[in-house]
Design brief:
heterotrimer, A alpha/beta, B mainly alpha, C mainly alpha, B: mainly alpha, 14 helices, about 80% helix, globular, C: mainly alpha, ABC transporter involved in vitamin B12 uptake, BtuC, 11 helices, 2 strands
Chain lengths: ~240, ~300, ~290
C-alpha cells in the first residue's frame, strides 16, 4: 500500500523552481533515501510534505488523503513526523520533557500524564538517552541532540518518519549507531524517508533511493541501480565511500 | 531532596507574606493599604504580562488597553450590577477583546504583534473618545464608589489568583507547551501543537486578569476618561518591571513590580516635576545594563561564587 | 460638494500624505536598515516643529528656510543617539531579535526623556505662528499661501528623496543594506557606517516633516505620538525595508485620513487602524512588501 505519495509536486519561490513536477510513491514499511547535491530541493520536499511550506502545484497524499495544504500540527496528528536539518530542540526544556511533549501533543486522543511519561521512558531507552533525561536540551552534544529529535518525533506515534540529514556532523561510530537505530525504528512498523549525504549509510540502509537534482527527479531505484546510474554519477561526482564498493 | 525543601521554604515564605498582607489594615496606618494597592495593581499587570510574553517571547505592548477596557466596563456597569459581577464582566470583556486582538495578530511574527499591540492602545483610546463624545455625549465617567479597604482586599485576591494560575499553568503541560512555542516554534508545530490557537488562548487569559485589575482600580480612581484609562505609560511599565525582575521564572515579575513601584512612589514624591524624565532615563538604564533582570543577576552571582 | 472643497481635501491630503511619507520613510530607514524600531521617532517630528517655531518667533527666520536648519540639527541628534545608545545595545545583544526588542524598549525610554525635556523647557501650552497668511487667487478660487507653500515644499522634498533613493549610489547602497545586510557587506558596502548614517537620515526626515507640521497645525510637546503610530502603520503597509513602499503608503494613507477627517473628524486614526488590521489579516508582508 502506498502510504505516502506525491504527484507532480511543484514549489516556486518567486521565479525559482525549488521542486518541479516531482512524483513519488512510498510503500508502507519501506526505508526510502532521498539524495541529491546541495540545493537539489530535498529539504524543500520534506517541508512540503510536513506542511512547513505549501505547494505551488501538484498534490501530496497520505494514506490516500490529500494533505498538500494542511498545517504542520494537523499533518503531525495524521501520522507524519520529522526531524530537521539544523536541529530544532527546545533548549531550556529537559530531555524527558521533549519526548513527553511529543507524546501528549502529537497524538489525537488525550493522553494521560502517566502514560506519556511511561512512553517517553521507553523511547529514551530506545535512543540511548535514559541517563540524561533531566538534562536541558541545550547542554547536549550534537549526536545526542539528533537522537533526542528522533525520540521526540517518535513520541508522536508516526506512521511515516522523515529524517533530514540526521547523520550530518557525526563520527563513523555515531553513524553506525544511528544506522542500527533506523533499522530498529523500521522494525517497529514505521515507514522512513531519509535525506542524507553520508553515502555509505544510504546505500546500506535504504530499500530504494530517489535522486533529486535542481528540483527535478533525476533517477529512482534500488541502491545498486543508483550506484551504476550514469546520470547520478555525473551529477554527484561520486564519493569514495560507494565508488569503492 | 534539595528541590522539595526549596519548595517548602518558598511555600512557607509565600504563605507568611500573604498572611502579612491580609492582616495589614489591622496594624498599619490607613495610608498603607492605599499605597500597597498600587503595588498590587502593578504586580497583577506585570505577572499577567509575563504569563504570556515570558514563555512565548512575544512582546505585548497593549497592557493599558486591556486594563482600560476593564475600567470602562466598571464605569458603565458599576451602577447596575453588584461589584463582584462587575469585576467578572470587566475580565470577560477584556478576555473577548484579547481573543479578537490575538486572532488578528498572533498568527504573525513577533514584530507585527508588537507593532499592532503598540498602536492598539491609541486606537481604542481614540475610538472610546469619539464614542463618548458623539454617542454617549460625555467626556469622562464617574465610577461607583467602593471603600478603599474593599478595593485592597479585592486587589490582594486578584494578585493571589493571577499568581496561582500562573504557577499552576507553568507546572502543567500547558506551561511546557507555551515554553516550547517560544523556544522553537516550528518544531512545536511539528509535534502537533496548534501554535496559533495556544497563543491566542493564553494571550486572552493574560488580558482577563488585566481587565479584572482595571475593573477594580476604576473604583479607586473614581473618575475616568479615555486619557486616564488608556494611559500609554501603562503599556510599557509592566514590560520594564518584568524585564527588571527577570522573565525566566515567576518571581522575577513579582519582584520587579514590587521594587520598581516602591521606587517610583519615592521618586514621585521627591521629584514631582522631573519624575517622568527620570522614568525615561531609568528605562534606558535598565534595558542597557540589566538584560536578564534581577533574577538573571542573582543567577550569575550564584554561579560566580560557587 | 463644491470644487473648492475638493481642492481643499486634495491639497490637505497631499500635504498630510507627504508628511506621513517623510516620517514613515524615516522610520523605515531606521528599522529597515539599522533594525531599530525607534519609538521616539515621533518626538523628533515634534522637535523639528518646535525648532521651526522658535526660529520664526525668536529670529524671524522664514519657516521654509528652517527646513535647512532642522534637518541637519536632527541628523546630528539622531546620529549621536545611534552611536551612544543603539550601537552599544547591538554590541551587547546575543541575537538580532534580542537587539530589536531591547532597542525598541530603549527608544521608548528615549521618547519619555525627549518629551519631558520638551515639556519642562517649552511648557505644555499650545503654540502656533502665522506665516504667509495671505490669500492667493488661482483658477477663480482662493487658497492660503502658506498651505500652497507647504504643499510645494512637501512635493519637492518627496521628489528629491525619491530620486536620491532610486538613482544615487548612496541611495542604492541603503536599499541594498535594507534588503539584505550580509549580501550588501559582500558587495563592499561599509554596513556599520551605513547603519548610523541611515538612522540619522531617518531623524533628519522626521525633522523636516516636523517643520511642515508646524506650518499646518498648532504644536505642543505631545504631538509626536500620533505621528509615530501612523508611521508604524505605513511601515507595515508598505513593507518594512521597502523605502519606496513607505513613500507610497504614506501618500495613500494621508489621502484616506484626510477624507475621513472631513467626514467624521475623530475617526481618522481609527480608520487607519482598521485598514492596518485588515492588511495584517490578509497580507502581512505589506501591500507592497517583499
Amino acid at each position: 500500500m502506498d502510504i505516502l505519495e506525491g504527484e507532480k509536486v511543484t514549489k516556486f519561490f518567486g521565479g525559482l523552481a525549488a521542486v518541479y513536477d516531482v512524483d513519488f510513491k512510498i510503500k508502507e514499511g519501506e526505508i526510502v533515501g532521498l539524495i541529491g547535491p546541495n540545493g537539489a530541493g530535498k529539504t524543500t520536499l520534506f517541508n512540503l510534505i510536513s506542511g512547513s511550506l505549501s505547494t505551488t502545484g501538484g498534490e501530496i497524499r497520505y494514506q490516500g488523503q490529500r494533505i498538500s495544504n494542511l498545517k504542520p500540527h494537523q499533518i503531525c496528528k495524521l501520522g507524519i513526523a520529522r526531524t530537521f536539518q539544523s536541529v530544532k530542540l527546545f533548549g531550556n526544556i529537559s530531555v524527558s520533557d521533549h519526548v513527553f511533549l511529543g507524546s501528549i501533543c502529537g497524538t489525537t486522543s488525550r493522553t494521560k500524564t502517566a502514560d506519556a511519561q511511561a512512553k517517553s521512558a521507553t523511547l529514551l531507552e530506545l535512543v540511548g538517552l535514559s541517563a540524561k533525561k533531566s538534562e536541558l536540551a541545550k547542554n547536549l552534544p550534537l549526536a545526542e541532540q539528533k537522537r533526542l529529535e528522533v525520540a521526540r518525533a517518535l513520541a508522536t506515534e508516526p506512521q511515516v518518519l522523515l529524517l533530514d540529514e540526521v547523520m550530518a556532523g557525526l563520527t563513523a561510530t555515531e553513524v553506525n549507531a544511528f544506522t542500527t537505530l533506523i533499522h530498529q525504528i523500521r522494525s517497529r512498523g514505521t515507514t522512513i524517508v531519509l535525506v542524507e549525504h553520508v553515502m555509505q549509510a544510504i546505500m546500506a540502509i535504504c530499500d530504494r533511493i530517489i535522486v533529486l537534482h535542481h528540483g527535478v527527479k533525476l533517477a529512482e531505484g534500488v541502491p545498486q541501480e543508483i550506484a551504476k546510474n550514469q546520470k547520478v554519477i555525473e551529477v554527484y561526482l561520486g564519493t569514495d565511500a560507494y565508488a569503492e564498493r | 531532596m534539595d528541590h522539595s525543601t526549596g519548595l517548602l521554604k518558598k511555600g512557607v515564605f509565600s504563605s507568611l507574606l500573604v498572611l502579612f498582607l491580609a492582616t495589614l489594615p489591622f496594624y498599619m496606618p490607613p495610608y498603607t493599604p492605599l499605597a500597597v494597592t498600587s503595588i498590587l495593581m502593578y504586580v497583577v499587570l506585570t505577572v499577567s504580562w509575563a504569563m504570556f510574553c515570558g514563555p512565548t517571547r512575544y512582546m505585548s505592548l497593549a497592557t493599558a488597553t486591556f486594563f482600560g477596557v476593564g475600567m470602562y466596563t466598571s464605569a458603565v456597569l458599576g451602577e447596575r450590577l453588584p461589584f463582584p459581577v462587575v469585576v467578572l464582566c470587566g475580565s470577560l470583556v477584556s478576555f473577548l477583546i484579547g481573543l479578537l486582538t490575538g486572532y488578528i495578530c498572533l498568527r504573525l511574527r513577533g514584530f507585527y504583534f508588537a507593532i499592532f499591540t503598540f498602536g492598539l492602545n491609541e486606537l481604542v483610546r481614540n475610538f472610546v473618545l469619539w464614542w463618548e463624545g458623539r454617542v454617549a455625549h460625555t467626556v469622562g465617567r464617574w465610577v461607583v464608589l467602593v471603600d478603599s479597604l474593599t478595593i485592597y482586599y479585592y486587589m490582594l485576591a486578584i494578585v493571589l489568583l493571577t499568581v496561582l494560575v500562573t504557577y499552576f499553568i507553568n507546572r502543567s503541560r500547558y506551561g511546557l507547551i507555551l515554553l516550547s512555542i517560544g523556544e522553537a516554534e516550528e518544531a512545536a508545530a511539528h509535534i502537533g501543537i496548534n501554535v496559533t490557537r495556544y497563543r491566542i488562548l493564553f494571550f486572552a487569559l493574560s488580558c482577563f486578569f488585566m481587565g479584572m485589575a482595571g475593573a477594580v482600580m476604576a473604583t479607586k480612581w473614581a473618575y475616568i476618561d479615555p486619557r486616564i484609562a488608556f494611559n500609554p505609560v501603562l503599556n510599557f511599565t509592566p514590560v520594564l518591571m518584568a524585564l527588571f525582575g527577570g522573565v525566566g521564572n515567576m518571581y522575577g515579575p513579582i519582584l520587579g513590580a514590587g521594587i520598581l513601584t516602591l521606587a517610583s512612589e519615592i521618586l514621585l514624591s521627591r521629584f514631582p516635576y522631573y519624575y517622568m524624565l527620570l522614568y525615561g532615563i531609568l528605562f534606558i538604564v535598565i534595558i542597557s545594563f540589566l538584560p536578564d533582570g534581577l533574577v538573571g543577576l542573582t543567577r550569575r552571582w550564584r554561579k560566580a561564587s560557587s | 460638494m463644491s470644487i473648492k472643497l475638493i481642492f481643499d481635501v486634495a491639497i490637505t491630503g497631499l500635504i498630510m500624505g507627504g508628511i506621513y511619507a517623510l516620517i514613515a520613510m524615516g522610520l523605515n530607514l531606521q528599522y529597515g536598515v539599522a533594525r531599530v524600531l525607534n519609538v521616539s521617532h515621533g518626538e523628533f517630528v515634534m522637535v523639528g516643529a518646535f525648532i521651526t517655531y522658535f526660529a520664526h518667533k525668536l529670529f524671524g527666520i522664514n519657516p521654509l528656510l528652517s527646513l535647512v536648519l532642522c534637518g541637519p540639527m536632527l541628523f546630528i541628534v539622531g546620529f549621536f543617539m545611534y552611536r551612544t545608545l543603539f550601537q552599544y545595545l547591538r554590541r551587547t545583544s546575543v541575537s538580532l531579535d534580542v537587539f530589536e526588542g531591547r532597542s525598541m524598549l530603549a527608544s521608548f525610554g528615549a521618547l519619555y526623556v525627549i518629551q519631558n525635556i520638551a515639556l519642562l523647557w517649552w511648557g505644555p501650552n499650545v503654540k502656533a505662528y502665522s506665516y504667509l497668511n495671505y490669500p492667493i487667487r488661482f483658477l477663480g478660487l482662493t487658497f492660503e499661501a502658506n498651505r500652497l507653500a507647504a504643499l510645494m515644499f512637501t512635493l519637492v522634498l518627496i521628489l528629491v528623496f525619491y530620486l536620491f533613493v532610486v538613482y544615487s549610489k548612496a541611495g542604492k547602497a541603503i536599499r541594498a543594506a535594507a534588503q539584505n545586510e550580509k549580501s550588501a557587506q559582500l558587495l563592499g558596502i561599509n554596513v556599520p557606517a551605513v547603519l548610523g548614517f541611515c538612522f540619522a537620515l531617518g531623524s533628519l526626515l522626521a525633522g523636516l516633516a516636523g517643520s511642515i507640521v508646524s506650518m499646518m497645525q498648532e504644536i505642543t510637546p505631545l504631538i509626536g505620538f500620533p505621528y509615530l503610530i501612523i508611521a508604524m502603520i505605513v511601515l507595515v503597509l508598505g513593507g518594512a525595508g521597502n523605502i519606496l513602499g513607505s513613500l507610497l503608503g504614506g501618500l495613500i494613507l494621508g489621502g484616506v485620513t484626510t477624507i475621513v477627517m472631513y467626514v467624521e473628524p475623530g475617526l481618522s486614526l481609527v480608520v487607519s487602524y482598521v485598514i492596518f488590521a485588515l492588511i495584517l489579516l490578509i497580507r502581512p508582508e505589506g501591500v507592497l512588501g517583499r
